[in-house]
Target: Origin recognition complex subunit 4
Amino acid sequence: MTFVPRLLCPVCHCFLWGPRRRQVKGTAFLVYTMTTKRSSDNNASCSKKVRFDIPLIPIDAETASVRHELLSRLSEITPGRLHGLQQQYDQLYQLLHQTTTTGESNSCLLIGNRGTGKSMLVRSVLDDLAKLQDDPNFCVVRLNGMTATTDRLALNEIARQLATQQRNQEGSAPDRSFSSFSESFEYILSLLKAGNKKTLPVIFILDEFDLFALHPKQTLLYNLLDTVQSAQSPLAVIGLSCRLDALELLEKRVKSRFSHRQIYLFPPATFGQFVDAAKDNLRVFTEGHAENSYRARFNKSVETLFEESTITSLLRRIFDLSKDLRMFYKICFEPVSLLSRDQPFLTTISFHQANLAQRADSKSEMLKGVSLLELVLIISMKKLMEKDIDAFNFQMVYDEYKEFMSRTQVRGLGFGMKLYKKPVALKAFENLQSFELVCPTDIVAKCPKEYRMTKLMLEESQVVETVLKYKDCPSIVYKWGTGAA
Model:
């Protein structure tokens, strides 16, 4: 079994045809080819054949199974393992179990910072409830306040999910058309209220609950909670929010129909708990496997990995910043994706490289490709900022650059460097403006472009970092940019 990657064309960002396998000197390669015609619009496709040769990653069935399990957990396709949330799990499980078994309607609000496990807790409870029977005896409708920005959009999403689940259960769904929003809303509510205790329970998951409270008149929340209070058909409304004052955003009529049941979730209190949670989510299931199997050896390698000082310092930084495990999951993606037959276990080097890539500054990365003249102009702007000059024009920058070159040539240190003429430097300055590294402070149409006031969109530390990482940087520019001269 081999890992077959999919590639995007670097020009039009569409998938390439292929892959076609070829072998060179015993090494297997994948060849992607695509030929398309260039269109007249801005979204032009490739005009010539695009070809990529990349080596196949040899991977066996066991390694592929472990990698798939970890990637599904890291990407939150499958719920991870809960840590320190047993009490919250029991409360939510008991609440939804009463809805799905005895037909009792309930409402609840989960409150906690981002990354504390609210969505994972809900998915874990729903998965455990679905395992009680071969066929799940409840229906789940998921809404997000960031996408369902109006009641109309939320209603369309409710109707779509209910119709899809009804079609999956019954094989077909009756088609109905409505002439207005109120008519369709009334029909959906009539369906929710027309049942009895034996009707199929419906569980509403309202992610970003506080955004639903910003809708005009809070019509959706009022009708859902009013249906819960009527207790005609089994219905549960579970809200998820990171705002502690989410309940205070509700109108009086909506708040009176809410059960005021709130479950609070907190991040790990100590660094040890945070490390245990991160370590446990990198372990794989070993049930039904021998003690010396690949999965058992993989879990032992994870224990050894977390004893390394590199991993400890990485986790300490995340814990001090936000205590959000998802930041650690982002770093784990690349090391887990590299698991193969030749590299069956996670390595410290891959975590270190992935951490550096995650922490890389986008502007500093962009500046790696600038020319030496553009770098010198950026340093000139930095020197002006050190003189408390926040806004400057090209003429001021060029004067600073010219003064630096004069001092360098007087000392006899400018070997290999020359003073570029003003039109050439102006072209480089305009190139920095096209990258939005230099932006105008005001718009004056009749002012010559070399006298238009601008400002540098970089911090001084970013400029120094760029100079330090610049390849083949002259020593005199290095000293000038870092302040050593």
The mean pLDDT is 81. Residues 286 and 293 are 9 Å apart (CA to CA). The two ends are 58 Å apart (CA to CA). Residues 151-170 form the longest helix (20 residues).
